Amino acid sequence: MPVLDLRLRFGLVREEYSATTVTVIITVAGRYFGVVVDAVSDVLDVSAGAIEPVPDMGTTVDTEYLKGLTSINERMVLLLDVDKLLQPQEAQMLEAALTAASDVKAVA
Q: For 67-76, what is each residue's pLDDT tens digit?
């Protein structure tokens, strides 16, 4: 299963993995892959009706990877659009690599 470190995707400095670093399994275009994140504080169920559009935050925040936002217990929660984590050419390369890997037969 391919794994993507979100720090690298977002251009952040790579840090050593710690006890709170986790890999979250997600599905993009029908394929499973892992994303490494610094920590997970909560897992929330959010209904589609509770998702609001991302407001214009000027140049201070890049909203390209955000799907929307919602409010949970008086906290604003930004929702990541996992479908946008892979660029189209990366998705094509991943698909080709996964297809090639599935064609490899083990010889005993």
A: 899 998 888 8
